Design the sequence.
């Protein structure tokens, strides 16, 4: 099942290799971004990213310390019909490996990390970014590293571009670009649309304590990159401003009196009503709005989700799917402007 989701062909893999492999759609995008003559793919794993580097670059050196994974990578490159990859099994930091390589345009590294961590740390990845740059700085013009997307910008102490990528509305990857590959300080991109946003992360978005006519849920890549001010400015129409409306400590909506559109908005709503956080008030308002059901977001105990939802949906026989955002003080009733599949 995962194989079908991630790849269009039946790739060869062990269990862990498939689990951590870069999805094909992401690999294609990143290969286009890093297109060059000669590229080294460090910690290539089963070759999910290597395949698409090979389709964009003249020559790719795929380096992997695990001999089992590199055999899978060879088979997968054959499966996808690429023959411009030279495979090297060994420690990418070993002098004997580095000396085998010519001058490189780009070094890409997807370093190993623990399968689970209570809190993702840069110090947990191997080989480290510092060690890779020190080892290859005399041979490579540019560097790119994949690191855990849970890392927030302030926890990344490098002069690089931090590109957060979301796939089908969920955060998927964080890539760090160094040297000439850096376009800005922070960036966000969403796939499959490939809509992107660059910025410094220093702007501010005004907050509103009142929800306005329309509400917007931004792509998680924009949120992670902390580029909401840049997105608000990009969507601005005349004097009409976009504000931040906080649902709780973890969630916020963008809100405006103007109807806005952007591929960097995950969901777009028209605000139908606002009421007290009580079963009776919400249920009554849902009936008035001809609702069929209500999807609840915001401040609600997960253990009580279905109890609360079943109660507020009692007696509903309309035809609208409503999205309900629960705050400390109110329940905001919204209807999607564009239904997602």
Sequence:
């Amino acid at each position: 099942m995962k194989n079908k989701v991630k790849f269009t062909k039946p790739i060869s893999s062990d269990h862990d290799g498939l689990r951590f492999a870069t999805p094909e759609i992401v690999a294609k995008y990143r290969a286009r971004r890093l297109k060059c003559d000669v590229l080294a793919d460090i910690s290539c794993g089963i070759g999910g990213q290597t395949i698409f580097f090979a389709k964009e670059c003249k020559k790719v050196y795929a380096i992997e310390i695990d001999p089992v994974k590199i055999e899978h990578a060879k088979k997968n490159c054959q499966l996808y019909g690429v023959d411009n990859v030279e495979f090297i099994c060994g420690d990418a930091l070993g002098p004997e490996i580095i000396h085998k390589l010519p001058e490189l345009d780009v070094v890409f590294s997807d370093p190993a990390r623990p399968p689970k961590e209570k809190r993702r740390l840069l110090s947990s990845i191997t080989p480290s970014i510092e060690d890779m740059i020190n080892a290859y700085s005399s041979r490579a013009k540019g560097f790119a590293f994949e690191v855990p997307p849970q890392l927030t910008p302030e926890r990344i102490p490098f002069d690089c571009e931090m590109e957060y990528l979301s796939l089908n509305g969920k955060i998927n990857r964080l890539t760090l670009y160094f040297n000439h590959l850096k376009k800005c300080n922070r960036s966000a991109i969403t796939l499959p649309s490939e809509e992107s946003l660059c910025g410094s992360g220093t702007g501010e978005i005004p907050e509103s304590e009142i929800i306005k006519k329309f509400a917007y849920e931004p792509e998680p890549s924009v949120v992670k990159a902390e580029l909401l001010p840049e997105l608000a400015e990009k969507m601005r129409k005349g004097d009409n401003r976009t504000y931040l409306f906080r649902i709780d400590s973890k969630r916020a909506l963008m809100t405006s009196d103007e109807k806005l559109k952007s591929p960097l908005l995950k969901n777009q709503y028209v605000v139908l009503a606002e009421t007290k956080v009580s079963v009776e008030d919400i249920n009554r308002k849902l009936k008035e709005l001809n609702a069929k059901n209500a999807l609840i977001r915001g401040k609600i105990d997960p253990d009580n989700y279905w109890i609360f939802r079943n109660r507020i949906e009692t007696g509903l026989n309309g035809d609208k799917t409503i999205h309900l955002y629960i705050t400390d003080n109110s329940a905001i009733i919204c209807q999607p402007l564009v239904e997602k599949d």
Summary: DSSP finds eleven helices and 16 strands in the chain. The chain has two domains: 15-148, 214-336. The mean pLDDT is 91. The longest strand covers residues 265-275.
